[in-house]
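Pilot study result, target chain (68 residues):
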Amino acid sequence: MEANNITAAPQAADVNALYEVWRETNVGNKEQFYKFLTTPSTERDEFINAHPVEISFTGSILMVTAKP
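Predicted structure:
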């Protein structure tokens, strides 16, 4: 998920359980699943919102200031 200058990535308490849910409708290995989870997209947001696995977002804030 990206908004302005903030990049956030999901953190799941049980990634293996979430991976098994993802595999029910997707073909791919864990590397592809991790790429799916760490790449902001509408599909990722829909997947996260549709599953009751505990997920939180963490990220870093990059401050950009113009030189006078």
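One observation from the pilot: Residues 1-5, 61-68 have pLDDT under 50 and may be disordered. A full batch analysis is planned for the follow-on phase.
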